[in-house]
Specification:
The chain is elongated and about 65 Å long. The chain has 2 domains: 3-82, Outer Surface Protein A, domain 3 (Alpha-Beta Complex), CATH 3.90.930.12; 85-170, Ribosomal protein L6 (Outer Surface Protein A, domain 3). The protein has 187 residues and is an alpha+beta fold. Helix content is 21%, strand content 33%. It has helices spanning 3-6, 61-82, 139-152, and strands at residues 9-10, 16-19, 24-28, 34-38, 44-47, 51-55, 85-92, 97-100, 104-108, 115-118, 123-128, 131-136, 167-170. It has a 4-stranded antiparallel sheet, with helices on one face. A 3-stranded antiparallel sheet has the order 1-6-5, covered by helices on one side. Strands 2-3-4 form a 3-stranded antiparallel sheet, with helices on one face.
């Protein structure tokens, strides 16, 4: 039994949700942001005044799995058009820096050339000292852009604690350092 799928999705004031014949859910927020996403043809949405319910046709394994997934996707759409999502990254390292050049994020992270990442139109990036803040309405796209930025230079797990940290990590991410190569002992 899907506990997530059974929970109602609260609709804040000013949010409108519609479902068309092709099972495409469109969500529009009070600030003018709009998202749309197709959902599985077997899932149905019941729209009430102040909440939404996702219904499944049977208790088959596939329908149970889709039930919770569909509810989470629609709930993320509602949250995205009202408050939005953000991911925060930190850049560490001597000479490592990030700057904006129009709609392009330029990173100097230890390579012989600057790394350029184009910023999609529906997302926004802000810089604060050594932090990169990725904001947007679509949770999936915000997370993917943040993951692509982090992938350019992950934190090294072989560096000793507290000394010479280099790389990009999420704010609050714990890095588990490894022991590294043991030296040859004896003769």
């Amino acid at each position: 039994m899907s506990r997530i799928g059974l929970m109602p999705i609260p609709l804040p004031k000013g949010v409108t949700v519609t479902v068309d014949d092709a099972n495409v859910v469109a969500c529009k927020g009070p600030t003018g942001l709009a998202l749309s996403r197709p959902i599985h043809r077997d899932m149905t949405l019941e729209i009430h005044d102040d909440h939404l319910l996702v219904k499944r046709p049977s208790d088959q394994r596939e329908h149970r799995a889709l039930h919770g997934l569909t509810r989470s996707l629609v709930a993320n759409m509602v949250t995205g058009v009202t408050t939005g999502f953000e991911k925060r990254l930190e850049v560490f390292g001597l000479g490592y820096r990030a700057e904006l050049d129009g709609r392009t994020l330029v990173l100097q992270v230890g390579y012989s050339h600057p790394c350029r990442i184009p910023i999609p139109d529906d997302l926004d990036i802000q810089l604060e000292q050594n932090r990169i803040i990725v904001r947007g309405a679509d949770r999936e796209r915000v997370g993917q852009l943040a993951a692509n930025i982090r992938k350019l230079r992950k934190m090294s797990v072989y560096r000793p604690r507290g000394t010479d940290l280099r790389g990009i990590r999420y704010v609050g991410e714990k890095i588990r350092f490894k022991a590294g190569k043991a030296g040859k002992v004896g003769g």
